[in-house]
Design brief:
Low-confidence stretches: 1-5
Number of helices: 5
CATH superfamily: tt1808, chain A
Number of strands: 14
Number of domains: 1
Mean pLDDT: 91
Distance between the termini: 39 Å
Strand content: 25-35%
CATH architecture: Alpha-Beta Complex
Largest sheet: 6 strands, mixed
CATH topology: tt1808, chain A
Radius of gyration: 16 Å
Length: about 190
């Protein structure tokens, strides 16, 4: 029934997704199911943890919340409900979007830490989905090159700023939050 990357060529919704008991993690993009990689490399996990820690510390006592994968982001739950993603990190400021194991609608910020198996999808399909859904800020982090592409939504389109490990990157959706990228990429 399953190959290495996708469930059979059927159309799936979140209701289907909730019934899968195969101990694997899946994402849905416009009704197509994609198998997520097994546990990511330690460098991916370390970058994710370091970035999460900085954002979480900044958000202590504030309205917005930060969550790490696994966390279901149902981008079109009010319509077809056929797109469910599990970004590495999400920031949500509207708590009414929080439901069950994730959120309904666009988070304020999404962070994807790319790996060789996900880079193309993160930079193309997910980029377009997040932009179309109104995710206000989308970060693509590359732990191998120690770089960050920060995409900020303006008038329905993303505008990118690139950073290296020597930079401090502002989080535009969190006024006053500055991420020290040397600390994010530390110990690699």
């Amino acid at each position: 029934m399953m190959d290495a990357l996708r469930k059979e060529e059927d159309y799936f919704t979140y209701a289907d997704y909730c019934t899968w008991n195969d101990d694997k993690r899946w994402e849905l993009i416009d009704g197509s199911a994609y198998l997520m990689s097994p546990a990511p490399a330690w460098s991916h996990q370390e970058v994710s943890g370091n970035l999460f820690l900085q954002i979480a510390n900044f958000l202590k006592g504030k309205q917005c919340k930060v969550f790490a994968a696994p966390f279901d982001v149902r981008l079109n739950a009010e319509t077809r409900d056929d797109t469910v993603l599990q970004p590495d990190i999400v920031v949500i400021c509207d708590r009414s979007k929080l439901l069950g194991t994730g959120c309904i609608g666009a988070p304020d910020m999404v962070v994807e830490i790319i790996s060789p198996g996900t880079a193309r999808r993160d930079r193309s399909e997910k980029f377009m989905l997040y932009q179309r859904s109104g995710v206000r800020e989308y970060w693509i982090v590359d732990s191998d090159t120690k770089t960050l592409q920060a995409h900020v939504l303006e008038n329905g389109r993303y505008f990118v700023t690139s950073y290296t490990e020597a930079d401090n990157a502002p989080v535009h959706v969190l006024e006053g939050c500055i991420i020290n990228l040397a600390d994010v990429f530390d110990e690699q």
